[in-house]
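Attaching the record inline, Q. Sequence:
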Amino acid sequence: KGENVISHVLGKFKAEEEITLSKVLEHTKKALLELIENDDLSAISSKYSLKA
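Structure, as predicted:
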């Protein structure tokens, strides 16, 4: 259930954009901040999953 966090982060990249560690971390940080600011744990857990 929910979207895989890694798939979500990789999905933020444009097709021609190089995937580097720093960009992965940047996109991950933005996603985490969005989740923290949302502050709705049930919505977060239904939207995101840490399982592969």
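Helices lie at 5-11, 21-38, 41-47. DSSP finds three helices and two strands in the chain.

More tomorrow.
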